[in-house]
Design a protein that fits this description.
Helix content is about 25%, strand content about 30%. The protein is of the alpha+beta class.
Length: about 160
């Protein structure tokens, strides 16, 4: 090889290495910019509210039951007040259905059964259905808070 060919080869290699370095630099700057933009959006979003309106006391005549399917909650009206109970089975989280004919909740997944007060009458559910807090707003509207469990038997008088 003569000296001119050697210079050409080394020049080609230098050009190649220079282009690789420039590409790596541009890629690193691009990744840094993308990372900065992603940092503007929170990676953890707040949970949706566990509270929802159910209406007013007049919407619940004594002896009535209203099922709020979207929220998986049933609200019962009795002479001594209202109570809200979860429709999520305590076994594996299936949604129980109200069996008004037999006066119970039935789990379609594994056969658990609950009284209308949430007590387990047939396993495999390990514990009763939870009751949720009901509060009356100053406007007269009633709210159920699924984030606050109350003791079984806790009712609100309207």
């Amino acid at each position: 090889m003569d000296s001119e060919e050697k210079k050409s080869d080394s020049g080609d290699r230098r050009d190649f290495v220079g282009k690789c370095a420039a590409g790596a630099f541009v890629g690193a700057v691009g990744l840094a910019a993308a990372g900065s933009l992603c940092g503007l959006k929170p990676s953890v979003l707040p949970d949706p509210s566990e509270q929802f309106k159910i209406g007013s006391g007049q919407d619940f005549p004594v002896g009535s039951v209203k099922v709020f399917e979207k929220e998986n909650v049933a609200v019962f009206s009795e002479p001594d007040g209202l109570y809200a109970i979860s429709l999520v089975c305590t076994h594996l989280g299936c949604i129980v259905s109200l069996n008004a004919k037999e006066g119970q909740f039935d789990c379609p997944c594994h056969g658990s059964r609950f009284t209308l007060k949430g007590k387990v009458t047939r396993a495999p559910a390990p514990k009763p259905l939870p009751w949720f807090k009901i509060t009356a707003q100053p406007s007269g509207a009633l709210m159920v808070d699924k984030g606050i469990s109350v003791e079984s038997g806790t009712k609100v008088v309207v």
